[in-house]
Design a protein that fits this description.
It contains one helix and 14 strands. The chain starts with 7 loop residues before the first helix and ends with a strand. The N terminus is likely disordered. With about 280 residues, the protein is an alpha+beta fold. Strands 1, 2, 3, 4, 5, 6, 7, 8, 9, 10, 11, 12, 13 and 14 form a 14-stranded antiparallel beta sheet that branches.
Length: about 280
């Protein structure tokens, strides 16, 4: 049997090599972990941004189109050159079917360009307790986005504070963007008319809404959203001016804050890790 005896110098050299190897493995592991963490954080941020844009798009569509419908029905278009409004029965006869026809391009006062038709079936004047308004779409586009699906309003009457309350639902809604991507959703809201309920014009209306929604974003990922602070929409403001949504996409959650009441197009996303960033809402 041959015994190999290493000198102290050789032994120290071997130990040094092992130490260096362990450090390399350790730092490589840390680097891979940090890289994966960075990738995960970036993916979460991208996912949150896309979903926030999708949600803000359908919130924008819903709130602004509700105002357009109110003006079309109650103020007969508000004195604008378009859209064309047709009643199946004489005006103020209920139930009735009303068609709002925006033609091939109708530019609204806030700069939005609408085309196609919105069709409303309504059982009674909308400020009648129990009245139901059902909204569908016929080749309807808003700023080039194709809108499909059904929405309903149900008048719940005056609440304990003497304000008009409505249950608003959206069923099988779909927005298809110009690049072919699309977002779908269903939602149920309780919307309260907190200002403007006592006047003829709708331009002084302010709505406060709570509720939940589920859907699929443009990447094909399912999301859910719950309003944790009421969403406030003023008729005179192009965007929702305040309120918070808690959004879950897969296993990740984030919040979407629409602001402090200032009429602007900015919102803030807060990720689960506390990171925040500002987004621009739709035009």
């Amino acid at each position: 049997m041959v015994h190999i005896i290493l000198s102290n110098q050789s032994q120290n050299s071997l130990k040094m090599k092992k130490t260096v190897l362990l450090l390399v493995v350790l730092f490589t592991g840390i680097s891979i972990f940090q890289s994966c963490k960075k990738s995960s954080d970036t993916e979460a941020a991208d996912q949150a941004l896309m979903t926030a844009e999708d949600i803000s798009a359908h919130e924008d569509y819903t709130e602004q189109t509700d105002l357009d419908v109110d003006i079309a029905l109650e103020e007969r278009g508000g004195g604008e050159s378009c859209p064309t409004i047709t009643f199946a029965q004489p005006e103020d006869t209920w139930p009735n079917t009303i068609t709002i026809d925006y033609g091939t391009a109708c530019t609204r006062p806030d700069g939005r360009v609408l085309s196609g038709k919105i069709v409303i079936n309504q059982t009674a004047a909308i400020r009648t307790p129990g009245a139901v308004r059902t909204i569908t779409h016929d080749a309807f586009y808003i700023d080039g986005i194709h809108v499909e699906g059904t929405r309903t309003w149900t008048n719940n009457g005056l609440n304990a504070s003497g304000l008009w309350s409505y249950t608003k639902t959206a069923t099988d809604m779909k927005l298809t963007f110009e690049d072919g991507t699309f977002v779908t959703w269903n939602k149920t809201r309780t919307s309260t008319l907190i200002e403007g309920g006592g006047t003829y014009t709708h331009w002084d209306d302010v709505w406060s809404s709570t509720g939940t929604a589920t859907g699929v974003n443009r990447a094909g990922e399912a999301f859910s959203a719950t309003i944790t602070e009421p969403l406030i929409k003023k008729a005179t403001c192009r965007w929702i001016s305040s309120g918070v949504l808690e959004v879950t996409v897969g296993e990740r959650s984030h919040s979407l804050d629409f602001g402090d009441g200032t009429c602007d197009r900015f919102g803030k996303i807060t990720l689960a890790n506390g990171n925040t960033f500002t987004i621009r809402l739709r035009r």
